[in-house]
Amino acid sequence: MEMPKILSATLVAAALALPATAEVKIALDSPPDLEKSGTYMWAHTFGEYLNANGMEAVEYERNSLGEEAERLDQVSQGLLEVSMSDAKSAGTLDATINGAMMPYFFDGMEQLDAALDEGGMLEQINAGTTPKGVRVLDIVYTGTPTGIFTTETPIRTFDDLAGVRMRALDEVQINTFENWGAKGTIVSWSEVPNALQTGVAGGYINPAFVPLTYGHTSFINYFTNARMSPSVRVAIASEDWYQGLSDEERTTVQEAVDAAHAANRKLVSDDTEVLKQLQDAGIEVIELSPEERQKFREASQSIYESTDMPEGALDAWNAAVGR
Question: What is the chain's alpha carbon radius of gyration, rounded to the nearest angstrom?
Answer without folding.
Answer: 22
